[in-house]
Amino acid sequence: MIDHSDRIASHKEGRFQGVGGLDLYYQSWYPWYPEGKVRAILAIVHGLGAHSDRYSNVIQHLLPKQYAIYALDLRGHGRSPGQQGYINAWSEFREDLGAFLELIQTQNRGCPIFLLGHSLGGVIVLDYILRYPQEASRLQGAIALAPTLGKVGISPIRVLLGKMLSRVWPRFTLNTGIDISAGSRDPQVLAAIAQDTLRHTLATARLATEFFATLDWINARAGDWQLPLLILHGSADRVALPAGSDTFYQRVNCKDKLRIEYPEAYHEIQRDLNYPEVMADLENWLERHLPPETAQLRRGSGELEFPNS
Question: What is the mean pLDDT of the chain?
Answer without folding.
Answer: 89
